[in-house]
Design goal:
The protein is of the alpha+beta class and 247 residues long. The chain contains four helices and 19 strands. The strands form five sheets. Strands 2, 4, 6, 7, 8 and 10 form a six-stranded antiparallel beta sheet that branches. The longest helix has 15 residues. It starts with a strand and ends with a strand.
Length: 247
C-alpha cells in the first residue's frame, strides 16, 4: 500500500520544523562576503519563530562563506530530546550581500527511525531494521534508497521527497523494479506483440514513483532499439509501467 509519510516526532523533527525552501536570507556581510555564524543563528531562529515554532537554540558550526554553492548545516534545538538540522546554501552574492536558501534536512539516522516507526511494509509485520544509503535534503525530487527488513524479509525501497511546505517535508516509500527484472519484463511484453528480442538491458532500477522513467535497450539479430519505461501506477509492492520506443 502506497502511503505518504510525514516525518514527525523527535526522531524526525527536521520535517516538522525546518522547511525554509521558499525563503531567501539576505545579510549584509563584511568585505570578505560571509555571514557570521552568530548572524546565521539569529536569522534561522527568526525564521523558526515566524513559522510559529519555538527553538530553544540554534547552533551553526561556522560562518557561511559568501561563494555561490557554499553550504553549512545548523542544528535547531526544540527541547532536550528534540532537535533537527537545516542546510544553508549560498544562492548569490551581490557585493557585500550574501543571499542564501535554507531547507530542511533529515539525517540518515532520523530517516531510518521515521521509516521504522511509520513506514509501510505491506506484510503486516512490524519493521525490524532499516538501513538507508543517506539522509534526505528537503528538495522535491530528492531520492535515496533503503533496505527495510520486516517479518524476516528484506526489501529495497526508494524514498522520494514529494513536497516541502513551511517546515514540513513529505516523502513516500516506494517499491523498486530491479533493472534485471525490468529487462526481463520488457522482453516478455515485447514477445507478446511480436518477435521476442534476443536480449535486453536497462540503465538502472525503476523506482516506483508515478512518471519516473528508465531507459532499456533491446537487441534483435544485431539491431538495437531503445525503449523508455514510465511508471503509470503503484500498488502495494508492485508497479505498472508503459514502454515507448525512444524517438
Amino acid at each position: 500500500m502506497r502511503r505518504v509519510i510525514a516525518a514527525v516526532g523527535a526522531a524526525a523533527a527536521c520535517a516538522a520544523a525546518s522547511g525554509c525552501t521558499i525563503n531567501v536570507g539576505t545579510h549584509t556581510a563584511p568585505a570578505t562576503a560571509e555571514v557570521s555564524k552568530a548572524d546565521l543563528q539569529k536569522d534561522i531562529s527568526n525564521r523558526v519563530a515566524r513559522a510559529g515554532q519555538v527553538a530553544q537554540s540554534v547552533t551553526c558550526p561556522e560562518d557561511l562563506v559568501g561563494e555561490v554553492g557554499k553550504t553549512t548545516r545548523c542544528t535547531v534545538t526544540k527541547s532536550a530530546t528534540s532537535s533537527y538540522e537545516v542546510l544553508g546554501t549560498v544562492s548569490s552574492v551581490e557585493g557585500s550581500n550574501v543571499n542564501y536558501d535554507v531547507i530542511p534536512v533529515m539525517s540518515k539516522t532520523q530517516l531510518e527511525s521515521s521509516i521504522s516507526q511509520h513506514g509501510p511494509t505491506n506484510t503486516g509485520a512490524p519493521v525490524d531494521l532499516v538501513v538507508c544509503e543517506s539522509g534526505l535534503d528537503g528538495k522535491v525530487g530528492t531520492v535515496t534508497h533503503c533496505l527495510i527488513t520486516a517479518g524476516g524479509a528484506t526489501m529495497r525501497r526508494a524514498v522520494h521527497v514529494t513536497s516541502v511546505t513551511g517546515f514540513s517535508m513529505n516523502f513516500i516509500v516506494a517499491p523498486i523494479l530491479a533493472k534485471d527484472a525490468a529487462a526481463g519484463s520488457l522482453l516478455a511484453k515485447l514477445g507478446q506483440v511480436g518477435p521476442r528480442p534476443d536480449s535486453a538491458s536497462c540503465a538502472d532500477d525503476l523506482d516506483g514513483f508515478l512518471g519516473n522513467t528508465v531507459e532499456c535497450t533491446t537487441v534483435t539479430g544485431g539491431r538495437t532499439q531503445t525503449f523508455i519505461l514510465t511508471v503509470t501506477d503503484v500498488t502495494g509492492t508492485g508497479l505498472t509501467y508503459r514502454y515507448d520506443l525512444k524517438a
